[in-house]
């Protein structure tokens, strides 16, 4: 059995893993990255990249279909949509591979397990076993899906998100279980394709982690597009129907009922995955939430770190990237105790949502006296030119100091615009400084400036309403 020694071993090639490996190699550490399947992890292969690629194509379809100056319908080649998705995935994989190798990272294909706190055995695809060791090890093994009791995926009618991304044809009806980030994204994709969609959510509102008012407006938009939205509804069972389709057994406020659809997509909970690692051999123990970690993402065993989805919720690629950098910086003694920056949440549906920080109600519960600035895209010229004026920007600020506590955006380019809120909170920009910032016209970004003005009733392109905000969350 061959034995190789490194400065750093990274287990897992998703955003947290490959970022860690690249950062370490750039800083002069001899680094190996072990990946059992495809580089890029869930985000590149089964999440962010493929869903956004398909969504972008369906947005084009919706734009053409809803155009006021085009007549008739179009023929959609779904096979080519899926082929383009695969091309983007493969191109992205090749890009990540090139960047890793270009920075001097060794890539090792295989499944890793601990043989000690500083050593691993890697079983290669050919069945060989290699022993590797390093002074530092980063666990970036991602997360797995937790469907809960009674739900079994067959990838024919009862689909995981992976199965939904591998469909060969467009179904007539789809039920999407779970109305969080991924649920509304899949609902948007299939609605844009002309599919009859029903969304099933066990909580009392869709997008339950977002500002209550944005959640309410989002539900109305989906309903206006003929998406059926069921809240306070639990999926008890999903069983293939005789002949075709699937029968869903639902628990609603009115009791149990059955619904038949062509396909059902389960966008359910995720939990950290450590499959096959033999963590106890390294001295690691699990809590109900996974591996515990402290400053710099270091676990209870010195020299072993955990990043990305393996570190628990929120399951976001940008969080994984930030944690990967933080772990390597801790290893190198750079900013060893510094906390991560604020982490935004993004919903890539139609429309988009971007949020960061506190809602007004959360801020009040923490003892802040708050002000709200609201600006609606109906007053934004760029939104008018694109025919996308159904959203808004909310800025939550501290009344006395003007410090920005939270930003919540729904509408076109919201996932890009939220970066302004992230930078404001991260760098301590208060409302007065935002008011003095010149943002270009015509752009969506100037609505951020207008929302800051609206905090004190000074918005230029909308009439300020008097009275207290009714739409707290």
Shape category: globular
Rg measurement, Å: 24 Å
Could you report the average pLDDT, rounded to the nearest whole number? 93
The CATH topology of the largest domain is FAD/NAD(P)-binding domain
Helix content bin: 25-40%
Helix- and strand-based class? Answer: alpha/beta
Distance between the first and last residues' Cα: 59 Å
Full CATH superfamily name of the largest domain: FAD/NAD(P)-binding domain
Poorly predicted regions: 467-472
Report the count of strand segments.
22
Count up the domains. Answer: 3
CATH architecture of the largest domain: 3-Layer(bba) Sandwich
Number of helices: 13
Task: Describe this entry's structure for a reader.
With 473 residues, the chain is an alpha/beta fold. The chain has 3 domains: 3-145 and 271-332, FAD/NAD(P)-binding domain (3-Layer(bba) Sandwich), CATH 3.50.50; 148-267, 3-Layer(bba) Sandwich (FAD/NAD(P)-binding domain), CATH 3.50.50.60; 351-454, Enolase-like, domain 1 (2-Layer Sandwich), CATH 3.30.390. Helix content is 31%, strand content 26%. The protein has 13 helices and 22 strands. The strands form 5 sheets. Strands 1, 2, 3, 4, 5, 6 and 17 form a 7-stranded mixed sheet that branches. A 5-stranded parallel sheet has the order 8-15-9-10-11. Strands 18-19-22-21-20 form a 5-stranded antiparallel sheet. Strand 21 (392-398) and strand 22 form a beta hairpin. Helix 1 runs parallel beside helix 8 and helix 3 (48-65) packs antiparallel against helix 4 (78-102). Mean pLDDT is 93; it is low at 467-472.
């Amino acid at each position: 059995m061959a034995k190789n020694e490194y400065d750093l071993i990274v287990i897992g090639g998703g955003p947290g893993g490959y970022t860690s490996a690249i950062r370490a190699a750039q800083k002069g550490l001899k680094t190996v990255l072990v990946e059992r399947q495809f580089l890029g992890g869930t985000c590149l292969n089964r999440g962010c990249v493929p869903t956004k690629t398909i969504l972008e194509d369906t947005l084009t379809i919706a734009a053409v279909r809803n155009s006021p100056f085009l007549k008739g319908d179009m023929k959609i080649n779904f096979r080519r949509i899926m082929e383009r998705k695969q091309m983007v995935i493969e191109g992205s994989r090749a890009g990540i591979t090139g960047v890793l190798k270009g920075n001097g990272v060794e890539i090792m294909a295989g499944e890793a397990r601990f043989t000690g706190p500083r050593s691993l055995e890697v079983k290669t695809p050919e069945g060989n076993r290699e022993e590797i060791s390093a002074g530092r090890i980063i666990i970036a093994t991602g997360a797995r899906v937790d469907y809960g009791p009674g739900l079994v995926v067959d990838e024919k009618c009862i689909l995981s998100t992976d199965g939904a991304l591998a469909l060969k044809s467009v179904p007539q009806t789809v039920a999407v279980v779970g109305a969080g980030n991924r649920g509304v994204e899949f609902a948007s994709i299939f609605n844009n394709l002309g599919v009859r969609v029903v969304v099933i959510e066990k909580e009392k509102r869709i997008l339950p982690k977002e500002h209550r008012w944005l959640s309410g407006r989002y539900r109305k938009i989906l309903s206006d597009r003929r998406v059926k939205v069921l809240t306070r509804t639990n999926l008890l069972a999903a069983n293939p129907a005789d002949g075709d389709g699937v029968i869903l057994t639902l628990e609603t406020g009115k009791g149990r009922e059955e619904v038949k659809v062509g396909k059902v997509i389960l966008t359910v909970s995720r939990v950290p995955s450590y499959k096959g690692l033999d963590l106890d051999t390294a001295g690691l123990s699990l809590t109900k939430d996974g591996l515990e970690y402290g400053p710099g993402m270091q676990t209870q065993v010195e020299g072993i770190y955990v990043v990305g989805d393996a570190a628990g919720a929120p399951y976001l690629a940008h969080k994984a990237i930030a944690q990967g950098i933080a772990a390597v910086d801790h290893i190198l003694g750079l900013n060893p105790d510094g906390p991560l920056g604020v982490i935004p949440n993004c919903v890539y549906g139609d429309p988009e949502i971007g949020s960061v920080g506190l809602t007004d109600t959360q801020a009040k519960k923490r003892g802040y006296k708050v002000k709200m600035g609201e600006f609606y895209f109906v007053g934004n010229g760029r939104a008018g030119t694109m025919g996308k004026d159904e959203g808004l920007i909310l800025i939550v600020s501290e009344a006395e100091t003007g410090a920005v506590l939270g930003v919540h955006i729904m509408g076109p380019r919201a996932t890009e615009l939220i970066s302004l809120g992230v930078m404001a909170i991260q760098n301590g920009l208060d409302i007065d400084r935002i008011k003095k910032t010149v943002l270009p016209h015509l752009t969506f970004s100037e609505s951020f400036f207008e929302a800051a003005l609206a905090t004190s009733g000074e918005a230029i392109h909308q009439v300020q309403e008097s009275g207290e905000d009714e739409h707290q969350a």
